[in-house]
Automatic annotation (TrEMBL):
It comes from the Bacteria. This is NAD(P)-dependent oxidoreductase. It holds the Pfam family DRL_cat. SUPFAM superfamilies: NAD(P)-binding Rossmann-fold domains. Residues 24-153 form the Aspartate/homoserine dehydrogenase NAD-binding domain. GO terms for molecular function: NADP binding; oxidoreductase activity. It comes from Planococcus rifietoensis. Residues 160-321 form the Oxidoreductase DRL-like catalytic domain. InterPro entries: Asp/hSer_DH_NAD-bd, DRL_cat, NAD(P)-bd_dom_sf.
Length: 433
């Protein structure tokens, strides 16, 4: 199997490139467009955003000339622009998912319900779909993956995001026959369950980031969602609800992940976890029962054993997404997908005391945060998946700070795609994914 770089060069030489359609020209989307403009064998030919200026800005920043950017909501005009070597900018996401000129669709919106619509439409149009939207994936990914399989296309998460980077370590170790003890990531900032857009505003302004997005990292929600994606891909589960959140450097990880009876700090193997002190890296804890393997690992300065750490100190977020695009198109392979079905769930927790009749907001907002549970535990508690929360979800009773919000606690005042697909997923697969 040729390396992706050489396969892309072959495509370019043969006069065939991978035509990418992108929905969402925010920070992640812009970076991806610029990265792909440097690459052989691939181009973002059609991009949608509710703010058309965002799309134009993304292309201009990537080095595309103004005269080569066609602004249109017409499928025919977009197709003609692409065929003539130009790119198209639109406000209509369905133009991207249905275009005959697009081979692979990328969702970079970050909004679960919008991501659900994009993935659903892309699969129905028999296009590979790359999700930068982990929140949508952990909510309805098992259904979308099975739909994609039935349609003969690839449903995948992205390289560069922590789940994709963790999966690369897992696949490497698992293929070699190592026992994989734990999988995890570093957390970039101390856990603050009360974080909201107001408390995060100053730091967000300093970093030029969205306060809401930053709050979703600070309150732990993004970490819970990311490790839920890893759980659904591998079958690994949190050792405790919400995970432990140990503090360590890389060197200390092998000792932490020994079982408690062996002097470590965990009760189980095959777990997902996050660590304060190793961000922005990801890791896999591996072990072997073979004497010669342990001798070799020690000779290679991998530590004294019995646990060893594989550590990747970086992840390049959407700049690595082209790798997943190419794997889907060239090899028909996913980078990461919920192969094990719904193993874990990021459930909805009240961030503060909430009143009957109050509407919830969304991830990174003022009302709720996420916590990872096993899917069995979440089902027993009738817990509301966090990916279903939006401003149309209203409380039927008052909820205390820190309490799990259940399905029976809420009423949905406006039907949404992600609710409908989650209902379909539950009815179709039950608890037997």
């Amino acid at each position: 199997m040729l390396g992706i770089n050489r396969k892309l060069e072959e495509l370019e030489k043969a006069g065939t490139i991978i035509n990418v359609g992108l929905v969402g020209a925010g920070q992640m989307g812009r970076g991806m467009v610029s990265q792909i403009e440097n690459m052989a064998g691939m181009r973002v030919v059609l991009t949608a955003d509710i703010q058309l200026d965002n799309v134009v800005h993304a292309y201009v920043k990537a080095g595309v000339a103004d005269v080569d950017i066609v602004q249109t909501n017409s499928a025919e005009e977009a197709a003609e622009a692409i065929r003539s070597g130009k790119v198209a900018a639109t406000t209509d996401a369905r133009l991207v998912t249905s275009s005959t000129e697009v081979d692979v669709v990328v969702d970079a919106t970050g909004v679960p319900d919008i991501g659900a619509k994009i993935a659903w439409d892309a699969i129905l149009n028999k296009k590979h779909i790359v999700m930068l939207n982990v929140e949508a994936d952990v909510t309805i990914g098992p259904l979308l993956m099975k739909m994609a399989d039935a349609s003969g296309v690839v449903y995948t998460g992205t390289a560069g995001d922590e789940p994709g980077a963790i999966m690369e370590l897992y696949d490497f170790a698992d293929a070699l026959g190592f026992e994989v003890v734990a999988l995890g990531k570093g957390k970039n900032n101390p856990l603050n369950l009360a974080a909201n857009p107001d408390t995060a505003a100053e730091e967000a302004a300093r970093k030029g980031a969205s306060a809401k997005m930053l709050a979703s990292f600070q309150d732990g929600t993004k970490t819970m969602v990311e490790m839920t994606a890893v759980a659904n891909a591998t079958g690994f589960l949190p050792d405790t609800p919400g995970m432990h959140g140990f503090v360590s450097d890389v060197k200390g990880l092998p000792e932490i992940f020994k079982l408690k009876e062996d002097g470590g700090q965990v009760s189980n193997k095959k777990i997902v976890e996050y660590i304060n002190g190793v961000a922005p890296g990801v890791f896999a804890i591996i072990a072997s029962e073979k004497e010669e393997v342990n001798h070799e690992m020690q000779y290679l300065s991998m530590g004294a054993g019995p646990n060893y750490v594989l550590y990747r100190p970086y992840h390049l977020t959407s700049l690595e997404t082209p790798i997943s695009i190419a794997r889907a198109y060239i090899y028909n392979e996913a980078t990461i997908a919920p192969w094990k079905g719904l193993q874990a769930e990021t459930v909805t927790i009240a961030k503060t005391d909430l009143e009957e009749g109050q509407f919830l907001d969304s991830i990174g907002g003022f009302t709720v945060y996420g916590r990872i549970l096993s899917a069995a535990d979440a089902k027993e508690k009738d817990a509301l998946p966090l990916g279903l929360v939006d401003r149309h979800v209203q409380l039927k009773r008052s909820i205390q700070k820190g309490e799990i919000i259940s399905y029976s606690d809420v009423v949905q005042t406006k039907e949404s795609t992600i609710w409908r697909l989650r209902r379909m997923q539950d009815e179709t697969f039950g608890g037997n994914l």
